[in-house]
Structures are given as structure tokens and as C-alpha cells.
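Researcher: Please generate the 3D structure of the following complex. Treat every line as part of one assembly.
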Amino acid sequence: MAKLLRGFGCAAVVGACLVFAGGQVIGQTVTYKAPRLGDGKANINGIWQAMNTANWDIETHQAAAGPILALGAIGAMPGGWGVVEGELPYKPEALAKRNENRANRLKLDPEVKCYLPGVPRDIYMPYPFQIVQSQKYVMLAHEYAGAVRTIYMDNHVEAPAESWMGWSNGHWEGDTLVVDTTGFNDSTWFDRSGNYHSDALHVVERFTPRSAETLTYEATIEDPKVFTRPWKMSMPLYRRVERAAELMEFKCIEFVEDLMYGDVRKPTRP
Amino acid sequence: MTHRLLVTGSGLSVLIAAAWLSATPVSGQSPAGPAAAAKPYKTPRTVDGQPDLQGIWTNQTYTPLQRPANVTKEFYTLDEVLAAEKRAAVREAAVSTPGTTGDVHYSGSEFGLDKSQGTLARSLRTSLIFDPPSGRLPPLSAEGEKRAAAFAEMRKKLGRFDAAQNNELDDRCITTTNAGPPMLPYAYNSNYQIVQAPGYVMILVEMMHHIRMIPLEDRARPPQSVVALTGVSRGRWEGETLVVETTNLNPTTVFGGIDLDAPLDRPAPFRGVSDKLKVTEWFTRIDAESISYKFKVEDPTTWSAPWSAELPMKQTIGPLFEHACHEGNFGLYNTLRGARAEEEKAAAGEKKPN
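Model: Done. Output below.
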């Protein structure tokens, strides 16, 4: 695994390297030198957002009607290149479950219920997130559901309990923030198309500055209960450069209460 | 006992707070001043030169927001506070007596951490409010009275068990008093993680994983009609002190639904403030393990005067764990389901006269 990861990371020393994002190739100039923080580390603070359709489907997909008739074109899925390298290496029985998830996504997708998004889905949901970078912790603060991850930069320990967002230990490899996350439950998905994982999920992410306004995000997914081998995804992340950019409140619990508790609501009498 | 499942953590704390008050010596002591004036503490700096407030903190306290009616002094002595803490610990343990309602819910001392088991942010104050000097909230303005009465009337019409939305914000896993602002202790888990980066102070509130993101510049604020649970905050450094001004607070949810006349952490239907509410907070590190947290609440259309309070934040051990409350909120669903079942049972009884 370690070998695989080393091979995946771009050489930070010379030349340019290419990162595959599905059918796309992201040209990456590694000569970019990120500004420094007071501790000499690359400064990746800021409000970032993916600009792709991965939250709909991490694999390459064509546009399609949405699951709710009334939403019309608003609820339709835009087409998009996948963010994964090649086909997802599902075990046969796991692929069957993915297809079942997909058929029942309106009922089963945890996003519908405003549940915590898990990893790496938190990174490419259609909401901004903010990196708050200190020496002991790098925080990922998400607009969606107020989800938050603490990346422990020192004092690395094993996940003390399973959780929705996992337990993240981080370190710097040159200008790349490398985050190793374990301790997941099996309740989150990768996208709205039913792609899923088990509680054996292990995610290694790499955040690399590629220009003043972009990061390259790469994730290696390992889950021997669901997949036959580790697989990778990658995408650029874009800085929200608007002067007024800030995380707005999206505490979506209020928006799903009628959906989740409607069947036990007191019936209104005519 | 119909609704005993709804004896929440916050309900538990009401018992504890009430016990604290009744057990606290109330008179016959000479007024004691605050702790002797400490040497000015030189706050360490972050790598970008901000005074460093980072760490894991708690504001867990027994001190009520408002001074109890039978207390006249501003401060207790340390001995009085220590003795009262001991009594509170005994009472907290007693909450889990077999056969009691508290035991049906859960034992805080076994499955959670009662206040007496965690780090306490001890204050000698008899109330968190220090202005007005009475230690109590200023009277409501005429408009505030009217709004509060209308709100109370509305609450009466809403059956708590009729719909999820009629329940308190903590039962719904939306927020607690911990997030504020002002940030007030809750029944348990009153823990905070402060992280600083250039241009920002982030406060992660453990309960409901609430994020307060405070930009350190006086940016434009959205129109008053755009509100949020924790409002819109703008911060600045004044010497060693972080000053945060918050507006755009959601008037229906502000204070996490706290009843300002009830024991501190009881969520209850005081939602009578207006959208003109402004909260100013001052965070000053006073030693290696403590932050002084002061705040001022202004809403001229609600209270006849601003009011201010102070409570310490004390360093405690981490880490903060993920508080995925909504994801496991079976209690709310089952409570509503139970209420519907009771209604069905009653209706069936009515239909069966013979």
C-alpha cells in the first residue's frame, strides 16, 4: 500500500506530472511554490470547492432525469467525466449492492437525510469548505451540515471509535498535505449513485497546491470488504475568490424533519 | 411517565441546577471579592503573530446565569463554592438511583460525564450576569413583553409531541446553548476547540459539531433578514483580547431556546428577542489554563438596557469526539411515534363503549 501511494504522488522535485481524473488529465506544474506560513509550511488556508459532478456520480456518466418528477430539470443529473481512474473494482456481490443502492437512492442516500457526508465525499459535495491550518491541527470545516474534520498533525493515534467522518492523521510531504483516515462506520456513500464502502474503509488524501487559486486533490481508497484492489480519484479544487466568500449556514436538519418524522406527525383534522 | 423518554440530558440538568441553588449558602457571609488581581499574563503568539487562544476548553459550570432571588452578594468564597461542588457531586450520583426517572433515562455518571466528573470552569460569582449589578436580567421593554407574551401564547398552542418542529433545538439535534453566541454551558459536553489561522479564529463546539468561523476583519454583513443559528460574526484583536461582534442571529432560535429565567442550561421557550439582537464577546487569556469570556447582549427592542455576563473557559483534555446527534436521533422519532400510539389507543377506547 505504501509503495502504491508513493508511486501515485507527483514527484515534488522535478518536471511536471500528470494526474488522471477519469478520462481527463490534469496538467500540473510542480514548479508552483505555494506561499509559506510562519512555520514554513505551504499555506493552503482558504475556502475551496470542487467544480465537477462527482457528488452525482464519481464515475463517468451521462445526463439523466432526477428521481423526483416535480423537480423537472432542476433535479436532473448533469453529465460529467468521472473522477476515478478506470472502473471501480467492486467485488461481484458488492456491485450488486451498489446497483441496489442506486435503484433506491432517494430512500437510501444519506445526503437526503442531512447525515454527515463521510470521506472523501465531503470534499466534492456542491458546497464550499474551509481549510483552517494550524500547527497541531488542520481543520476542514464544511458548509454542508456543519460537518467538520480535525486532522491531527502531531500525536498520531489510531481511531479511538468509529465515526461518520473518520479519524484523520496528517503530515506534510513537501508542500503536500497527506491525510490518512480510518475509523469509519459503513453508513456513508461516495455519491448520489449508490457507490459505497464498508467500515473497513481507509482513505489516504493528498492536497497539493498547484496555483494560487487551485489545489490538486487525490485520494486513494482501500476497502477489502467491497473492492478487489485499492483505487484512486483526483480532481482540482478551486479557491472561492469572491471578496465576500464565507461559509454560510447549511444546517439542513430543519429541512428534512417533515421527511424523516412526517409519518409520526399528529394528523391535522379537517 | 407517558413521555419519560423525553427526559433529556437538558431535563437532567434542571434537577442538578435546582439542587445546586437549594444547597448553596445564601446569606450570613461577608462579601468576598474576586480572586486576587493576577499578574498580567503574556499571551503566547501563533506563528502569524495573533495572541494564541488555541486548545481544548470547557465552560462547564454550576453558576447560574441569573442570581438566585435569595442571594444578595456578588461572590461566594472559595470554600463555599468547593463545599457546594461536593454536594452537587453527591446529588448527581443520586440521579441514577434505581427506580427514579433519572435512572430510566440514563446515569450521567456512568454513560456520560456529569459536571462533577469533568473539568469545571469554576467561578466565584453568584451569577454569570454582572451587569446590571443585581445579577439579573434587566426588565423587558414594553415591546419585549408583548413579543414574549405572543410567543408564549403560540407555544401553548403547539403540542410538543405533535411534530418534530415543536420540540426544543437540542432534542432536534440542531444546536445547544453551547454554540450561542453567547456561548453558555450545556448539561454536559460543554467543550470547545479553538483553532487559529491567518485571518480567522475557528471555534468548534463539540455539541452538534457546530462551527463558529470568525473572520478577523470588519467585512460587510448580509441584510438583517438573512439570519443564522450562530449569526454572522466579525472579530478583531484589541491588544490581547479577541473581540467578536455578532448580528444576524435567528430570533426564533437564539440562545438555543434557553429560558433566561430558568436554571442556566434548560432549553425552554424564551424566544422573544428580535432580529436587532447584537452580541459582543471578549476572549482574553488570563493564564496558561484559562480564558476570561465576557459578553454583552443588546436588543433595545427587547430589554430596557444591555446586559453583560462573565464566565471562565478552562483548558481541558481532548480530543473532541464527533457528536453525530441527528444521525442517531431515534429518541425524537420514537417519542412522536409513542404519542401517536397513545392517541390511537385513546381513540379506540372511545369507540368501544360496550
